[in-house]
Design a protein that fits this description.
alpha+beta; Aminopeptidase; 2 domains; 11-stranded mixed β-sheet; 10 helices
């Protein structure tokens, strides 16, 4: 059964628990919809699917590929050159969130329930895409359990690379630096001192402690980041306000102050295992402030909270010398036009060879001391 809006979906069954992952919670997706950040007007038409199990699969009818972070613009161009329409397409993903995780809401399913739900979805795909006049269906950043239910050649599997930090039972930030070469320790300490020397204090603020003034200021920072690239931010101010109400226990902000003036900030989400860094902005360029606010404050926070991993977002080779390790991400794709499906699948097999080589090279650039040294 398909529902247009999350607010129209039936309430979860009694006793069914939500995921700990902040992005797989109804409140996160509802904040996107209720704030107008996700709608037909923005090219993200909600079309959520409810499985017989009662679990909700986020589903969107997309008229473009913005905000996905698995880039398929070349596929759309190839369709256009062949006189075919790539849009609309169907997408199961968390909007604007390139983070690996669950892709079912209210899904404390037994393994067999999950398998049957996905098998039913796969069986219905041709009819679903035909009914919606969609070129295909795309699943972005699924966790490993969900990904395992999709296989080639029926599906196209695409590999990507991000850079994540892993907590190896560090006592504090200095303990983390102790794993690094002397040169990298010195550089990072210098970067952190440089921020303080410019009269900047960075504080980690829980979502529940954010004031209305700070939040309005942060929203301005967020938009400034996009404006520098000639774009507008995807998210509305109301969305951020809803986060601090409905997901306060899963959010934190690194706020940078010069005296009493708030000049920069970064938003983080977290669950019991992982810290997720997402949005950043500032009103002036200050040496090393981005590293301090987006990375070092996050590492400090993860260690203090006993979190096992820090996912700071997509791209960014500058993360490697700061201890963020290459980490594979995946997506699965099904195209109704089977000739194009096979052509793209073969191309991505070649792309995967390059991704593997890239990740192997990145491993050699990590700043950690050799084991035993």
């Amino acid at each position: 059964m398909t529902w247009k809006l999350l607010s129209q979906c039936p309430a979860p069954e009694p006793g069914r628990t939500e995921h700990d992952n902040p992005f797989a919670r109804r409140s996160f997706l509802h904040a996107l919809e209720a704030s107008g950040s996700v709608s037909a007007d923005t090219g993200w038409t909600p079309h959520h699917h409810m499985h017989d199990s009662g679990a909700i699969q986020p589903l969107y009818r997309k008229d473009h590929s913005y905000g996905e972070y698995v880039f398929d613009w070349a596929w759309a161009d190839a369709y256009a050159r062949a006189g075919l329409h790539y849009y609309p397409k169907l997408l199961t993903a968390i909007p604007f969130t390139p983070s690996t995780g669950p892709r079912m809401l209210d899904a404390d399913l037994a393994p067999e329930e999950s398998r049957l739900a996905i098998a039913s979805w796969i069986e219905q795909l041709p009819d679903t895409c035909h009914r919606e006049q969609a070129s295909g269906w795309h699943l972005l950043f699924p966790d490993k359990d969900l990904l395992a239910q999709f296989a080639e050649p029926e599906f196209i599997l695409r590999k990507g690379c991000q850079f994540h930090w892993f907590n190896r039972d560090y006592r504090d930030f200095d303990d983390f630096l102790g794993r690094m070469t002397a040169r990298r320790r010195k550089t990072i300490r210098k970067e952190r001192r440089r921020v303080a020397e410019q009269g900047i204090e960075v504080r980690m603020i829980e979502g529940s402690a954010m004031t209305a003034d700070w939040l309005a200021r942060f929203y301005a920072f967020y938009h400034t980041t996009y404006l520098k690239r000639g774009m507008r931010g995807y998210l509305s101010q109301d969305f951020f306000q809803r986060l601090c109400t409905d997901l306060a226990d899963h959010t934190a902000f690194a706020l940078a102050f010069r005296g009493q003036e708030l000049i920069a900030g970064a938003l983080f989400f977290h669950d019991q295992q992982t810290l997720y860094g997402r949005y950043w902005g500032c009103i002036e360029d200050i040496d090393c402030l981005h590293f301090e606010t987006c990375y070092y404050q996050g590492i400090d926070y993860a260690i203090a909270k006993g979190l096992r991993r820090f996912d700071p977002g997509t791209q960014g080779e500058h993360k490697i010398p700061r201890g963020f390790e290459p980490t594979a991400t995946w997506s699965a794709h099904w195209l109704a036009h089977r000739e194009f499906h096979e052509l793209i699948r073969r191309h991505l097999r070649q792309e995967r060879v390059h991704i593997d080589a890239y990740m192997a090279e990145a491993e050699t650039l990590l700043p950690f001391k050799a084991q035993g040294s």
